[in-house]
Write a structure and sequence with these properties.
Chain lengths: 334, 301
Amino acid sequence: MRFQLINIGGIFLKTVTTTVSGSAQTIETKSSLLKNARKSFKRHWQFYLLIIPPVLYFLIFKYIPMLNSVIAFKDYNVIEGIWGSPWAGFKHFELFFNNPQFWTLVKNTFYLSLYSLAVGFPIPIILALALNEIRNGIFKRTVQMVTYAPYFISTVVLVSMMFLLLGARDGIANQLLATLGIESINFFGAPSMFRDIYVWSDVWQYAGYSAIIYLATLSGIDPELYEAAKVDGASRFQKILYVDIPGLMPVAVIILILNVGNLMAIGFEKVYLMQNPLNLATSEIIATYVYKIGLLNANFSFATAVGLFNSFINLVLLILVNALAKRISNQSLW
Amino acid sequence: MGGIRSSTAIKESFGDKLFLTGVYTFLTIALVVVLYPLIYIVSSSLSDPAAVSSGKVWLWPVDFTLRGYEVVFKNPQIITGYTNSLIYTFFGTIISVTLTVLIAYPLSRKTFFGRGFLMFFIVFTMLFYGGLIPTYLVVQKLGMIDTRWAMLIPNAVAVWQVIIARTFFQASIPDELVEASEMDGCSDLRFLWSVVLPLAKPIIAVLVLMYAVFQWNAYFDALIYLKSVDLQPLQIVLRNIIILNTGSSGSMEASEMLRRQELADLMKYSLIVVASLPVLLIYPFVQRHFVKGMLIGSIKG
């Protein structure tokens, strides 16, 4: 169980890359490869028919958009279409880099993600470690079940709940502050509050869900290690420090890589819902900017350039962090 | 925690007890913090509007009433949204699960030539995103803008679910069974239909639940692809009423001018409960399946 779990997401990527490079590498086996292919086509022709709809789905909705992003280098207009529109080179990228909003957008996106990561990464681990200490079945199950529940709530409902609970006039939070004699806070109107609300509501919603994978890993740790720790007279805290945490490391590193790789891809949905003219100074991120410029102002080429810049940074981050993790801890996605 | 650590070195059992107390305290706080907002919302939705707006509701309903729910179910916008969400969830789930099984099962068979390439073809879409506008242009070209198709097709397949399903097929359909069926001259299609699918009921259940919850909760596709009011799913209606604070007055009785604002506020609590109800009702029953699904996905393929 433990070995299987350690390979989250990672191993399949590994198998994929090796098979691809393996098939390209050797010329000698080419003839046998062809033979295999022919045999497979004959034997599994029904499979090749079955996969047509899903393959078409990926081609149309994932790969054609990648090709379409060529409009980032063009002056797209509806009449001439994607391929007919005139080339513009890097004009839109230059426009974006010279835009007075450029650094604000990058900074807002980056700070929000980094804050999310700094809080959202360790808390599920702590939660799992704490739950793992409990032997009382009912209490443990209750905590698990309750903390996992918010995962199923939609983003719209979550933000709606925050609007009601943190409302400026009659939200319960401000009523509580009032009874304590503290001045009320306009949670959604203050740019300084935006990131806190965003990040901590994320923790509220996802900590229980994210803890599951760590809990499963903990339950797979070799019992002999605990026996040995006991013999050595380790306290509960030392056991966590020297057995539990090292046991979690491989999974944690993979999850960290995935998170850092998605640093700039922070969700549009929640930010957009929480945005209002008052908190725009901190809440305008690249994703929401792309939406507004692209779909609301119909500036397709410029918005695509901005989006492409974001995707590119993400890919570079993922590759960098993966390489770094490989060097430091021998864990990597591929 | 540093203090605890140093004390454990000296007096083991006392330190451990203290530590365990700390653990229980932490988990109890976590429990309360997660649970309280949920209870508060439900209690408020069942309370008298005046009690809610004057801050008398803290934990349990005050002056129990179902008026908030009456208003919700009388609002034509909400009824339309609810119906639409049910339609999208039902058909979207069927489409998604079918497409996922169609690709996941061939991918699980070792003798299927091209599976390595196909897997890479799918996983790559996780690493690089074509972008909002380029995707929008595709959907536009297909004539799906402002039609129900836009809610069902453009995000039909999730890569993660394909991986989960493939892993399950690989682990639970023994090679011997496949070989035996081939000896008997059973075609791939027939084998999939009459052997694999009955065996795969647990994973189908996981896929159905995950896709259904995803569809029910989705709002982004509706935001960018839909314009007509009649097509909007419940999440968009919810956003309009609570977050943008518009369009809530539609069915409000004019005779209650004074209490209207309070009632409109109360209705927001009821609306939140109603919108989350389908998902939260099935939650206790499906929780285990979800955990299982998540862990299957993480097992080596």
